[in-house]
Amino acid sequence: MINPLLIHIEKICSIKINETDLFDSFFEHKIYKKKEFLLIEGQQCFEKFFIIKGCVHLFFLRENGTEQTIDFALENWWASDFNAFSGGGITQFSIRTTENTEVLCISAENQNKLLRQIPEMNLYFHLVFQRAYAASQMRVRYLYEYSKEELYQHFLFDFPEFTQRVPQYLLASFLGFTPEYLSEIRKKYLS
Amino acid sequence: MINPLLIHIEKICSIKINETDLFDSFFEHKIYKKKEFLLIEGQQCFEKFFIIKGCVHLFFLRENGTEQTIDFALENWWASDFNAFSGGGITQFSIRTTENTEVLCISAENQNKLLRQIPEMNLYFHLVFQRAYAASQMRVRYLYEYSKEELYQHFLFDFPEFTQRVPQYLLASFLGFTPEYLSEIRKKYLS
């Protein structure tokens, strides 16, 4: 069940990891139903998750008790609270599936062992995080540059399938809209 | 002149790079005066910069011609448009010094050679980008969670020296304030 990750590694950095038995011993294959939690805000975070199939959202609880979604992860993305993961600390985010989801999960402890045994994996993680950080630079630019409606247009243009796939109330939360406002501008752009 | 980077590498991932002569051949030591450009929006980006001494800000030009600062980098941070750097593409950001600044600069081509010759450097970059991405997760949370005034309070609390060091009009731009508004709340918190 490790294949999707091996394929992703080869795609990102042209490394063939052949030691699949070894590899298997570091990762755990987990299956979650829709709306199950991978991580709960306020608990310790020891793991990070590679999405094989499905979708998750990352959110935090506002003081008024509403959930604020700040990110999504689909197939071939890694999800975690990386601050907490790297230090074994308390997470400031929850992660929950938005559909039935399969992941490969690795603990910080197992990752350290993996990196010692297969150091080439550092090239993979270097490039994965560089890409994620580059995406976050562009995202911050968009947050400063665009109105809410323009943000939605960009999102629709850059990730058309995704916009259909995630629950609309979560997309509204992510974009900082009320669900009613999102529904209004959806009608405008889809008509 | 490579020492500050070697010290940072040892601090981040406990690796001692002894091959300093080799190392020197990949990096270029550059000195910039205050307000000089390291990178100009719209040009190709082939390099990334390790700040030895000084400070830079990353910004883009709004349609109305004003500069929007979205990030700063001080000593021991890496700065670039990482999307453009990784693909040799056109940068969507400018980088300019806010004080006299010394950097170590490496081209994408030299980085590829470096990683082949000293593959341990991938562990360093893996951890550096993980840290940068983790910081951007928290930053996005703050952008959703806090009012402008609360953002300033957090910034003042988390980075007190920094708040004194960068020009106030750039800090205002970064925080999404007018300079007048920043001056008003500065008076309030510093009195």
TrEMBL record, chains A, B:
Name all Cyclic nucleotide-binding domain ranges: 31-117
**UniProt name for this protein:** Crp/Fnr family transcriptional regulator
Species for this entry: Flavobacterium panici
Q: What is the lineage of its organism?
A: Bacteria, Pseudomonadati, Bacteroidota, Flavobacteriia, Flavobacteriales
